[in-house]
Amino acid sequence: MNPILGELTPFVAVLTPAIASLLILISYKNPNIRETWTILATIVTFTLVFSMVPKILDGETMEFVLFEIIPGIEFAFKVDAFGMIFAITSSSLWILVSLYSIGYMRSLEEHAQTRYYFCFAWAIASALGVAFSKNLITLFVFYEILTICTHPLVAHEESEEALAAGRKYLLYLMTSGSFLLAATMITYVLVGSTDFKAGGILSLDSASEIFLQLLFVCYILGFMKAAYMPFHSWLPTAMIAPTPVSALLHAVAVVKAGVFGVVRIICYIYGIELTSSLGLGIMLAAWVSFTVIVANMLAIGEDNFKRRLAYSTINQLSFIILGVSLLSPMAIMGAMMHITFHGYMKITLFLCAGAIAVVTGKKLVSELSGVGKQMPVTVFAFTIGAVGMSGLPPVAGFIGKWYICLGAVQSAEIFNQPIFLTFILVVIIASILDIIYLLPIVKSAFFENPKEEIENKEFGRRLYFFMLVPLSITAIFSVILFIFPDIFSLIELAEVAVDEIYE
Amino acid sequence: MINTVVEQFPALIVTTGVFSAFTILILGLLSRKICYYIVLIVTAFHFILSIFTLQHVLTKGRIHYWFGGWRPPWGIEYVVDELNAYSLIVILFLGLLGIIFAKRSVEKEIEERKLPTFYTVMQLLISGCCGVVVTGDVFNLFVLAEVASLSTYALIAIAGGKALRASYNYLILGSIAICFYLLGIGFLYAVTGTLNMIDMRIILQNLYENKMVHVGFVLVLVGLGIKAAVFPLHTWQPDAYTYAPSAVTLIMSTVVAKTFVYALIRLIFSVFTVNFLELYINAWNLVPWLMGVAIIVASILAYRQNNIKRMLAYSSIVNVAYIVLGISFFNSQWSLSGALVNILNHAVAKGCAFAAVGAIVYKTGIKDVGALAGLANKMPYTSGALLISMLTLIGIPPSAGFVTKFYLAIGCLEMQNYLMLAIILLGTLLTLAYFLRVIEQLYFREGNSTQKEEVPFSMLAPTMFLAILCLAIGIFWLTGIPLEFLKKSITSMGVIFR
C-alpha cells in the first residue's frame, strides 16, 4: 500500500490540523460544527500518517522539499522510522483526546473554547512538523510555533496564577528556543548543512573536541522541552492548564518534542560514534539519572494530583533520554518505543485525573479516598496506567524498561565499561519509587471509605461518555501494546530506525 | 521606447509629488474633501511607478537620470539601483497604506480647517523621502531630507498639546543633525570638489588618509544617525512617536525612519566604501558593540513603558540597531542581507503595530498598556493584527522578523562573534518580555464590555493587510527566491565578497 498522497503526504499531514484550526476559528458561533472540524481533522491526519507506515517499513524514506531557505538549508519534510513513531503516537492520541476535550470542556462550561481548539490544532500540526522535519531549521520553526501556540492553553484559566504559569512557560521554552537556534546556526556554519542523517553530520574534523562538547550542551539546553532537571519547574507549573492539554501536550506532544530532539541530536547530528568518543553519552546518562530519581522523590511529596503526574512525566522523559544516552542498539530501541508506551500510559493517568476532577471536583491526592467506589471504571483504568508506569507486566511500560536494562548490559559490553551496569540500578530504584507514589492512590481510591455518601457517579451523564470512552481505550491499548507491541508496527519501526543508525 | 519612459520615473515621482503638494494647498481653498483624494491618488500612482522602476532595474540595470540634461558631476543626477528601487517601493507602499489609514483617524484627531495644510505637508513629506531615496547627489539629498524633516516637525506639532514640545525637541535635534550632515558634505566637497556620489566615491579612493575625510565621515554618520534614531542618538524619537497623531506616527515609523536608514547605508557604502571602513576597522568595530548595547538598553526601556506607542517607539530603536548591526558586519553577506530585509520587515511589522494602536486609540482612546484589558473581545480583528505584528517583532518563525534574526545570526557566526549572537537572541527574549505584557492584557484579562466595536473599514483594511504581509513576507524571504535579488543589492552597494 502506498501513502495516500504520495510524496505530499507528510506535508498534507502537517497542513491538515493547521487548516482545521482556521475552520475552527471561522465556525466559532456554532460549537457543534467547530468540534466536527476537530474530529474530522484528527481522523484525516491519523489516516495520512498511518498510510506512510508500510513504505517506511520497507526501509525507504519519503522526502518533500518545500523550498530552499539558504544554500544548504531547505524547508523540507522527511519521514523516517523514528519520526514515524512520534507522529503515530501524537496523531493517534489526538483522536482520543479530542473526544475527551469535548466532554471535559463542555462539562466544565469553560470559556474561550474556540481559542482552545484553535491552539490545540496548531500544537498538533507543529508536533507533526517536528516529527517530519528533514533538518534542524525546519524542526526549529515548528518547535517555536509549538511553544507559542501552547502558551494560550497553559494560561487558559486567565487567573493570575495561570498567567504567571504562562510567563514561566514562555521564559523557559523561548530561552531554550534561542539556544536551539544558536546551536543550529553554529552547526550550519561548521558543516554547511543541518540535515538529519543516520550516523551524524558532525565529526571531529569539523571542530575541536571541547567546541563540540559545548555545542552539545547548547543543544541539550535547546531541548528544554524535555524537562530534565534543573530546568524542569515549568512543567509542574503548566499543570494549571485544562486536563486534556496536560494530557496530550504536556505528556506527549510538547515534552516528547524535546526528547525527540535529543534523540535526533545524538543519533542523527552527532552520531553514535562521535557521541561516545566525546564521552557525551555517559555524561548525559549520569545527568538524567539524577532527574530520574529526584523527580520521583518529589512526586512522593506532591499532593496536587496533576502535579504529581507531572513529576512522573519528568521522570519518564529523562528515562527515555537515559535510554538513548546509553548508546547501545537495544537501549535506543527501548527509548524509541517508550515514547509511544509512555504516551499511552501517561495519557490514561491524566485523563483519569481530569475525569475525577470533573465528576467529583477533587484535585488533591489526599482527597481521593473512596473515589474508586464512585467511579470504578475510571479508577480501574488509572490502575492499569499506574502499573504500567511502574514497569510491571502486563502493561506496555515493562517492555520499555526491559529493553533499556538490556541496553545497559549491551553498552557495558560494547564500550567495555562495567559502569553502565549501574544504570540498571537507577531504573530499578525509579520503578520502586513509581510504585510508592502511584499505587497508594489506587489503594485509597478503592479500599478506603470516603467521608461522604457513596454512589456511582459515572453513569447517567451524557457528556461523561466522551471522557470515559477515550480513557478506557487508552488503558486497553496500554495492555494491548504489551501483548502485541507490534500493533502500530512499533517494534519494526524501532528496528528499522536502529538499523539505520548503526549501519 | 518603454525603457526610456521608465528611466524618467524616479524624477517624475519626486517632481509630481512636490507639485501636487502645492496643488492640494490651492484646491484646499475650494474643497477640503478633495485634498485627501489627491494625496491618495498621487501616492498610489507613484507606487505603481516605483514597481515599474524596480522591474526595470532588475531587468535592464541601473537607471541614471540627468536633471535638465546636465552631465554629472555638474548637474544633479538621480541614480536608481536595486537598493534604491527596493527602498523606494517600501517607502511608497507603506506611505500609501498610511494615507489610506489616515483618512478617518485624522478626521477625528485634527480640526477640519487644518486638513488642507495637513495633507499638503504629508504629500511633501512623502515626496521628500522619495527624493532622498532616488538621488545620487549628496547635496540634493540634504535638500530633500530637509523637505522631509520640516514636514515631519509640522505634522507632529499639528496635534497640539504635548506634541508641540516633542516637535520642538525633534526640530532642535533634527536641525543639529542636518547641520552635521551639511558640514560633513562641506568637508568632503572641500577635498573632492564634487557633490555627485559616484564621482565622490572615485575621488575619495585616494584620500582615505586625509583628516578632512575622517571628519566628514563622522559628521555625516552622526547627522544621519540622529535622523534615523540610531542609539544613543535617538532621544527625540520616543516623544515624537508618542505624541504625534496616530497616522503621522505610522508614517514616521515606516516611511521617514526607513528613508534615513537608507541614506545611512547609501553614504557608508556607496560614497565611502568598504575599503575605507577596513582601513579604520578598529574604530568601526565599536559600532556592533554599541548596537549590542542599544538592543539591550532600548529593550529594557521598552519594558518599562506604560504608553503603548512609546513601547513601540523603543522597539523601533531596537530594530534600527539590528539594521545598523547588520551593516556593521560588512564582510558577511548574510549580515548585510539581514539589514536589508529588516528595512522591509520592520516597516511592515511596525506599520501594522502602529496602525492597530491607532485604531485602538480611535475607537477607545486607550493609550496605556494597563487599560487594554479584554480588548480582544471588543476589537477582535485589530487585536489579531496587533498580535501578529508583535509576534513578528519578536521574531517567531515563519514571520518576517524571524528572517531578520536568522540572517543576522548567520552573519554573526560568519564573523565569529558569538557574543553578538547571544545579544541578538537575548533581544528576542526581551522583546517577548515587553510584548507579552500587551498580549496578556489583550487576550487574557477580562474587559468591561464584550460588545464588538470595530474601526471603519478604511482603517481596518490596511491594518489587516499589513498583518497578513507580516507572515507572507516572512515566508517569501524564506522561500529563497529573493536571495539573488539580495545579493545583487549588496553588490550594488559596492560590497564585493571574496
Features:
heterodimer; A: 503 residues; mainly alpha; globular; B: 498 residues; two-stranded antiparallel ribbon; 21 helices; 78% helix
Summarize the structure.
The complex is a heterodimer of chains A (503) and B (498). Chain A is mainly alpha-helical and 503 residues long.
Would you kindly provide a written description of the structure presented here, covering whatever features stand out?
The complex is a heterodimer of chains A (503) and B (498). With 503 residues, chain A is mainly alpha-helical. Chain A has one domain (6-501). In chain A, 72% of the residues lie in helices and 3% in strands. In chain A, α4 (81-107) runs antiparallel to α10 (243-270), α7 packs antiparallel against α8 (209-222) and α16 (376-389) runs antiparallel to α18 (422-447). The mean pLDDT of chain A is 89. With 498 residues, chain B is mainly alpha-helical. Chain B has a domain at 285-498. In chain B, 78% of the residues lie in helices and 2% in strands. Chain B contains 21 helices and two strands. Chain B has a two-stranded antiparallel ribbon with strand order 1-2. The two termini of chain B are 39 Å apart. The mean pLDDT of chain B is 89. The chains are: A mainly alpha (503), B mainly alpha (498). At the A-B interface, β1, α6 and α7 of A face α18 and α19 of B.
According to DSSP, the number of beta strands of chain A is 2
**Binned strand content of chain A:** under 5%
What is the rounded Rg of chain A? 21 Å
Supply the number of helical segments of chain A.
20
User: What's the total helix number of chain B?
Assistant: 21
Order of helices and strands of chain B: HHEEHHHHHHHHHHHHHHHHHHH
List segments of chain B where confidence is low: pLDDT < 50 over at least 5 consecutive residues.
Answer: none
Spatial gap, N to C terminus of chain B: 39 Å
Major beta-sheet overview of chain A? 2 strands, antiparallel
Oligomeric nature of the chains: heterodimer
What's the shape of chain A? globular
